[in-house]
């Protein structure tokens, strides 16, 4: 696995803010015109345009999970484009569909970021299909 230091600073800041559930720091990482997309089961499940909408989503998501963590497994970097393979671990604070409050959920996915200046202008996230996830009981 490449050393995490190979990632651009903005990606480090974004991941750190995400993992700490620091909404203000997370929003500071994105541009005014950020496009955020989440794909699940090979279909778009969420699309957010603009920093204000991103901030509302980030605040909601921070409260929805008692714990959440993104860890980079490996990454491909080409200029202003960064594509990390990630492990996501989260514990919902409330029931979310099949995911039960207090149940630790582990997913593998990929993120695709586009950077302009010192901000993220695009974040596209895809996770493996639900039948490939690993569920672990307890914290």
Features:
139 residues, alpha+beta, Nuclear Transport Factor 2, Chain: A, seven-stranded mixed beta sheet, 7 strands, disordered C terminus
Care to describe what's here?
By secondary structure, the chain is of the alpha+beta class. The protein contains three helices and seven strands. It has helices spanning 9-20, 23-27, 51-64; strands at residues 30-40, 43-49, 65-78, 81-92, 104-116, 119-127, 134-136. Strands 1, 2, 3, 4, 5, 6 and 7 form a seven-stranded mixed β-sheet that branches. A hairpin with a 2-residue loop joins β5 and β6. It is globular and about 40 Å long. Mean pLDDT is 87; it is low at 1-5 and 131-139.
Radius of gyration: 15 Å
Strand content: over 45%
- Calculate the mean pLDDT score and round it: 87
Question: What is the CATH fold-level name?
Answer: Nuclear Transport Factor 2, Chain: A
User: How many DSSP helices?
Assistant: 3
- Which stretches of 5+ consecutive residues score pLDDT under 50? 1-5, 131-139
Straight-line distance between termini: 27 Å
Question: Number of DSSP strands?
Answer: 7
Overall structural class, as computed from helix and strand content, comes to: alpha+beta
Q: How many distinct folded domains? A: 1
């Amino acid at each position: 696995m490449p050393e995490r230091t190979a990632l651009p600073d903005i990606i480090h800041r974004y991941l750190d803010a995400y993992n700490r559930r620091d909404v203000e720091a997370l929003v500071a990482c994105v541009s005014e015109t950020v496009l955020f997309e989440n794909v699940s089961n090979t279909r778009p499940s969420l699309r957010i345009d603009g920093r204000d909408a991103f901030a509302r989503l980030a605040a909601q998501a921070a409260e929805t999970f008692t714990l959440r963590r993104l860890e980079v497994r490996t990454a491909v970097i080409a200029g202003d484009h960064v594509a990390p393979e990630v492990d996501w671990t989260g514990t919902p604070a409330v029931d979310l569909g099949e995911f039960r409050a207090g149940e630790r959920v582990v997913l593998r996915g990929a993120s695709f970021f586009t950077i302009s200046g010192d901000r993220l202008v695009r974040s596209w996230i895809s996770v493996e299909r639900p039948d490939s996830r690993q569920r672990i009981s307890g914290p």
